[in-house]
Amino acid sequence: MAFGMPQFTPPQLKPGEVAYITKGKQIGWGVTARLERLPSGDVVKTPLPDLDQRYFEAHCQDMRLEARIYDAVGLHPRISGIVSWDLKTCCLTMEYLENGMLKDYITTNSESLTPQLRQRWAKQASEGLSVLQAAGVIHCDISPRNFLLDGDLHLKIADFEGGSLARSAASAVAGTPFRYPVSDWDAPPRFEEDVFGLGSLIYFIMTDAYPYKDTPSNEVEELYGSRTFPDVTEIACGDIITRCWGMQVSAAEVHAYFEALDG
């Protein structure tokens, strides 16, 4: 043993306690994983520990799915980048995106956002989703929390651990404003449901608000179920939002719509 070197002593745990050795600065915490910023600058996702091995294994399984999705999709500028995958620990290391979640950025900087920037984000969101769908991936949790911004304010879609690959069972479900009411929770997810969420995402990008933002969730579900959606006649891109909510278009068609606007 080398003298003068600090030695790590594991904590003494009481029954019912779980120890976690940090890897870096914590920047997020979800249902499946903990996110930490490493000294290298990258971000590592670690499956949450749990005394119940069944829950821990479910977290690991979600992380394995996310790694498979990254492998299926490959590198793309609209997909958050993967740095490495550790099969043994089920830890996923990814690039750090400086400007964080789209939700937070819009909420904080609403007054300074130009129509051109908002349109670019809508275009990039639809492009990212179309890339996933081309690879057979259903995200299952479309939300401005799961779209991240890099240093140049370009948008990337992230967080695939709860999704579906090649029609596999999903463990995630979108929040009420981004989810078409499901009558059969055992039915496999559909690409169209992600497109519905894309419509709500574009609505948020253009208005800074979730659809029916002050309405209780159960009432929103009833409104969606009766095909009653917010008025978008005065909103930029309202026509494509309506078509997304009607699940009448694919993500690729939404992207082509915004491409034509740029034309």
Describe this structure in words.
- Its EC number is 2.7.11.1.
- This is EKC/KEOPS complex subunit BUD32.
- The chain is an alpha+beta fold.
- It has two domains: 25-94, 2-Layer Sandwich (Phosphorylase Kinase, domain 1); 102-262, Transferase(Phosphotransferase) domain 1 (Transferase(Phosphotransferase), domain 1).
- It has seven helices and nine strands, in the order E-E-E-H-E-E-H-H-E-E-E-E-H-H-H-H.
- A hairpin with a 5-residue loop joins strand 7 and strand 8 (155-157).
- The longest helix has 21 residues, at 53-73.
- The protein is globular, with a radius of gyration of 20 Å.
- The protein starts with 24 loop residues before the first strand and ends with a helix.
What is the top-level CATH class of the largest domain? Mainly Alpha
The helix-and-strand class reads alpha+beta
Shape, please? globular
CATH superfamily descriptor of the largest domain: Transferase(Phosphotransferase) domain 1
Low-confidence stretches: 1-8
Total domain units = 2
CATH topology of the largest domain: Transferase(Phosphotransferase), domain 1
User: Percent of residues in beta strands?
Assistant: 5-15%
N-end to C-end Cα span: 68 Å
Element order: H for helix, E for strand: EEEHEEHHEEEEHHHH
Q: Quick one: how many beta strands?
A: 9
CATH architecture level-2 label of the largest domain: Orthogonal Bundle
List the helices and strands and how they pair.
Elements: E1 25-29, E2 33-37, E3 43-47, H1 53-73, E4 82-86, E5 91-94, H2 102-109, H3 115-134, E6 137-138, E7 147-149, E8 155-157, E9 164-165, H4 191-207, H5 217-225, H6 238-245, H7 251-262
Helix pairs in contact: 3-4, 3-7, 4-6
Enzyme class: transferase
Subunit structure: Component of the EKC/KEOPS complex composed of at least BUD32, CGI121, GON7, KAE1 and PCC1; the whole complex dimerizes.
Organism: Pseudogymnoascus verrucosus
